[in-house]
Each structure stands twice: as C-alpha cells, then as structure tokens.
Hints:
By secondary structure, this protein is mainly beta. The chain has one helix and 20 strands. The strands form four sheets. It has a six-stranded antiparallel beta sheet, with no helix packed on it. Strands 2-7-6-9-10-4 form a six-stranded mixed beta sheet. β19 (265-274) and β20 (277-279) form a beta hairpin. It is globular, with a radius of gyration of 19 Å. The two termini are 35 Å apart.
Amino acid sequence: MRYFYFICFIILVWTSCKKEKTETELINPNDPNAISSVLILPSGTNREDGTPPPPSSQSSSPDITSNISDITSSNGATTPLIFNYSGVNGNLGGCFLQVTGANDYFNIPYAGSSSSSGELQVPIGIPSNVDSGEFCISFCVYDTQNRVSNIYSICIIVLRLGTGALQISLSWNTPTDQDLHVTDPNGTEIYYSNPSSETGGELDRDDIDGFGPENIYWLDNAPDGTYYVQVVDFENSPIPNNYYVTINSPGKSKTFNGTTINGNTVNVTTITKSGNTYNY
Length: 280
C-alpha cells in the first residue's frame, strides 16, 4: 500500500516569542478550550469557531478508521495522530480536527495528490508548559467535493516530563522501539543505557513499545557548547518509522521529522548554546 501523509520529510517549525508560563500557570489539558488554544498544528492550518461540518450522507463519502483509541504524549512533545482513510473519489481536500468540548476547531488542508485509500498522520505539538492530564480529539477527512467522512476520536494522555533550560523529546508513528540519544558538550552520550550526565542532562522516559515520548532535559542550566541529537532504530524495523524530535529552550521551540529503518541511526540536528542563545 502506498502511504500519504499531511507532513512527510518536512521540517515543522514553531517559534514562540512569548514568555514561558511559570509552574503555577501550567495549562490544564482537561480544559478543552485551554488546550485547544495552544496546540501546535501543521503550517496552513485554519482555526474556525464552532464545530466542523457533519458527516455527509452520500454513499460516495470517504471513510476513516484507526487501530488506536488513545496515545501517550507529554509536554514539549509532538505526537502523530495516525489513521487510515478509504473511499476517496478524486482527491483528499483536508482534515477537520476538534478538541472534544472546545468552542473552535481546526481545518487542515491536504496539499498534494492522494489515492483512494492510505494512511494519514497529523503531527500535534503540545507546548512545554502543559500540565499532566488527558484530552480527546475528534477528527474526519473531506474530499475536494466537500464530502465529509465519519468522525473518529482518539484520546491523548499527557505526561508531565522534565523541561527547563533545554528539553529534547522524541515520538514516532509505529509500535516499535526507537531511541533518543543526545551527546552533551562534555562528550557524554545520554540514552537508555546511560540516562544521566554530570552536566545535569537526564533521560526521564524511555519507551520500548511504540509512539513515545522519550525525553532528555536539563532543568536549571545547560552548559555552553554543542549537543548532538540522534534517533536510533533499536527495533531494527524492516518498515519505515516516522519520527518527530521537538527541541524546547527558553522562548523557542522547533520540531524535526524524518525516518528510521533497518536499525539505522539518524543524525537529526545539532544544538549550539552560548550564554542565553540556542541555535538549532
């Protein structure tokens, strides 16, 4: 089967100039309007008031399914919403997405041509100042004739993981074991077998059975120098695994995505820090 994605092999960038909220101002993911207002979605997404159009009654309308009813994520991570579509006559027009209970929704256009069926991924970014909790997302697709599919829902369980001076998070789209590795300016490689370094870096979550997140962070101070970020296909998977690595530092966030396969190691990016300046 050929697969189609909303975002594939494209760098997703989100940069904020807002001051990070303090611990007493954490966003509650159980509040639909609060979490909807901060979610980070693909470029070109439109936010609309109200609710999306209802499913169409025509037999020629698209259909969507998913094997996932809930997925674990965390503050500071980007999580792929994964589902399959079928029955598309012509081309996909896009996807409607709404946090259940929110007063607005998102319209995510589909750029490119599609087949009549395939797999879609919508990367959903959760800012580092979101607290632990859970929210659910209802979504559907529509074709270029504005025929709307059935509605499917997936709940996202948000963990509160380490953040601060520097946070690096990994998520991926398959039920496999992918690993986050970060080498700090002292040359110490932080990963599942060596979860901390003398510089203060710490791996506080290692996921071995799929989707992530994995998380490495420096709480109060990250040393100056160069950091090397890698993703390793520990599973030695014969199928492609699409990963999302999100880096958060004070006032800045950026997400990189790519693919691992057959046990390879991908050099995702480098981070250079000098004083209060982070470049990545």
